[in-house]
Write a structure and sequence with these properties.
Distance between the termini of chain A: 56 Å
Structural class of chain B: mainly alpha
Shape of chain B: flat
CATH architecture of the largest domain in chain A: 3-Layer(aba) Sandwich
Oligomer: heterodimer
Number of strands of chain A: 10
Largest interface: A-B, 32 and 30 residues
CATH superfamily of the largest domain in chain A: Periplasmic binding protein-like II
CATH class of chain B: Mainly Alpha
Number of helices of chain A: 15
Number of helices of chain B: 13
Chain lengths: ~375, ~290
């Protein structure tokens, strides 16, 4: 809150009779004294709160956030949102680890597993939920999983959800073939050299679990999983590393099939590309949150989070980035486009989506990310 | 203080800003990296300070790292040789051209005005399935189906040549430019052909420039990770990609530090060998 707002509130209280003249003048005088004796350093520190840094996934997602959330928020509050991008959650956590406290503020993180990692590293903050009244409109299931990690408190608010399903070029792969083969289409010899894959170890292991008939949240035969990853690698043209690269590979027809993010595929479909999208049984569901790092300006961050969870901002961003918002469709009218987005759940229960179990994935992160790194390079 | 002492101190005083900068921006970070390499990564991703040889044991004994290192050195060698073959005629032509030398040098510098990543990505528009080359071949009826030209070792080498060739040309150019042209004329007047005078006079005298360019190309090529990331296939990773993955993907900074020090040691050894035979002054000449 800036000084003029504080003054306005004080003046309102005085005019309403909540504050007597002596107290009002006393407070104004004290504020003036405090302002007069404050050092230039203090001024700098206070002015820094005029800016909040936000990091996200780039591409259409960043465009939507800038247009529908950050710019209107800055216009309304005067707090500037500096937005940066990252290619993966791993990359971002590495940057945060190398930074000073307060350098990074809010991130558009994916998955509860990342939230848990930040908590384990002591990087979570505690949100004052009173400052985020729009949180009450969020699907409860999405909020509860975060509360479990941070002992009932929140360091983030859920913002959207989606799936990592399979995108396929309909010129070369029919819908019927996709239904028949499901996740195993990514191991089809016929498509050798035309298959893509995300270079994310979790996604690779998730899909290898599906391909070997195992529970993606509890694979028991890891040898079979690694073998399926090797088979996929040998049929692969390229591991992609960002949403932009994924879209380019599919649009340019360098690859015909890959696992892909639902919103990015919808964007391609909107552009007129004949790309199909399918969530196989037990496909990879995820939710994204707006995570506030420890050391961030909390009041301004909470203000931004609340703004982003408003129906107007949330729906506009969702329509721009093509991922359903975390708002509960039972409580909020989400308009016409959102119900058409892939992964959208009209019931708000999300019972049809399988999310990653954070204990399972984080418990194996160290060993599996390393092992996948080796297999990825031909071992 | 005597005049002699003051004179002796003067070079150090003049050097002190540069030495201080180098100390804090190069020596201190390297010390940090060395210290880090003996730490461990905990399961949560946090670092565990201490003196552990685990990372070094893994890096030095695991054949995975050795194989990738050899692969990297192979790619860097091929790239350097190709840069030398392609760069020498171009550098010679620029150095010996009577007109437009400034413009030719300007053309050589032009690529540096564009981001290295953008330059690398431009190959996707040239060699991609719907890129310029395939479109041309399809339109001219030479092929009926687009060729899969991208995402293999060849495109990685191509991308590296694109990146490194100007460094090679500039170094050779500096060397050839410094050779007195009358020496070639003298060789010809003594009965040698133009080709012989080039082989016997110009080439040997320009070898330091060729070596300097070679060293730069090799070191820069061996240390890159962007090119294989953008233009390589699943098995075209280079050693710097391992460092990137250890630091970024696996959040294993101690292992990443050990890996980066191995690369520094290998490339440092190469620079020492170069210095033994040619001296570093030639390298500075090429860079200036």
């Amino acid at each position: 809150m800036d000084n003029s707002k504080r003054y306005d509130r004080l003046l309102d209280r005085y005019k309403n009779g909540d504050l007597d003249r002596r107290s009002f003048l006393g407070l104004i005088g004290a504020a003036g004294l405090a302002y007069g004796v404050s050092t230039p350093f203090a001024k700098n520190a206070l002015s820094a709160v005029k800016e909040v840094r936000f990091d996200g996934w780039g591409g259409v997602v960043s465009e939507a956030l800038r247009k529908h959330a950050f710019d209107p928020f800055t216009k309304e509050t005067g707090v500037k949102v500096v937005d940066g991008t990252f290619g993966s959650g791993d990359e971002y956590i590495s940057r945060v680890k190398a930074s000073q406290t307060g350098e990074y503020n809010i991130a558009h993180l994916s998955g509860v597993f990342d939230y848990a990692r930040y908590h384990e590293l002591g990087l979570t903050s505690t949100l004052n939920e009173k400052n985020i009244p729009n949180l009450k409109n969020v699907i409860p299931k999405l909020v509860d999983v975060f509360r479990e990690v941070t002992d009932g408190t929140l360091s983030c608010v859920p913002f959207d959800y989606g799936t990592t399903g399979i995108a396929y070029n309909r010129k070369h792969i029919s819908d019927d073939e996709m239904k028949e083969k499901g996740a195993k289409i990514l191991l089809d010899e016929r498509l050798k050299g035309k298959i893509g894959g995300w270079s994310d170890w979790r996604t690779r292991i998730w899909y290898a679990s599906l391909q070997t008939g195992q529970d993606p949240n509890n694979a028991t035969d890891m040898d079979a999983v690694w073998e399926a990853i090797r088979t996929h690698r040998d049929l692969l043209l390229k591991y992609w590393g960002s949403g932009a690269e994924l879209m380019s590979l599919l649009a340019e027809e360098e690859i015909y099939v890959t696992e892909a993010w639902s919103g990015r595929v919808f964007a391609l479909q909107e552009q007129g590309h004949d790309i199909g999208y399918m969530d196989p049984p037990n496909g990879f569901g995820w939710q994204e949150c707006l995570f506030v790092l420890k050391g961030s300006p909390m009041e301004e961050s909470e203000q931004l989070l609340n703004f982003m969870l408003s129906k107007e901002a949330s729906v506009a961003v969702a329509e721009g980035q093509n991922y359903p918002p975390a708002l509960d469709p039972a409580k909020v009218d989400l308009g016409k486009k959102i119900p058409t987005l892939p992964a959208f759940d009209p019931t708000g229960t999300l019972s049809g989506l399988t999310f990653a179990n954070s204990d399972y994935w984080n418990g194996n992160q160290q060993a599996w990310s390393k092992q996948f790194g080796r297999i990825q390079k031909g071992y | 203080m005597t005049l002699e002492k003051r004179e002796a101190r003067r070079p150090w005083l003049l050097l002190s800003p540069a030495l201080t900068t180098i100390f804090f921006l190069l020596v201190v970070p390297v010390i940090f990296v060395v210290v880090y390499s003996f730490w461990l990564r905990t399961a949560s991703g946090a670092d565990q300070p201490g003196f552990y040889l685990t990372n070094w044991a893994e890096v030095l004994t695991d054949s995975f790292y050795r194989d990738i290192l050899f692969h990297t050195l192979k790619i860097a060698t091929i790239t350097t040789v190709l840069c030398a073959i392609l760069g020498y005629p171009a550098a010679y032509f620029i150095a010996r051209s009577r007109r437009n030398k400034a413009m030719l040098l300007m053309c050589l510098m032009l690529p540096f005005w564009i981001s290295y990543i953008i330059r690398t990505m431009s190959w996707i528009n040239i060699l991609g399935v719907s890129g310029a080359l395939n479109s041309l071949l399809l339109a001219s009826g030479i092929i009926s189906e687009p060729l899969q030209l991208l995402y293999n070792e060849t495109t990685v080498i191509l991308g590296l040549i694109h990146f490194l060739l100007p460094f090679m040309i500039l170094n050779i150019y500096v060397s050839v430019e410094g050779i007195d042209e009358t020496l070639e004329d003298a060789a010809c007047s003594l009965g040698s052909t133009r080709w012989q005078s080039f082989l016997e006079v110009t080439l040997p005298l320009s070898l330091p420039g060729l070596a300097a360019g070679g060293l730069l190309c090799f070191v820069l090529g061996a240390g890159t990770y962007i090119t294989p990331l953008i233009l390589g296939g699943p098995t075209d990773a280079m050693f710097a990609n391992l460092v990137f993955e250890a630091i970024i993907t696996q959040l294993d900074w101690p292992l990443g530090s050990a890996l980066s020090l191995v690369l520094v040691a290998v490339l440092g050894a190469l620079i020492l060998i170069y210095n033994r035979f040619f001296g570093m002054s030639q390298l500075m000449k090429g860079l200036s």
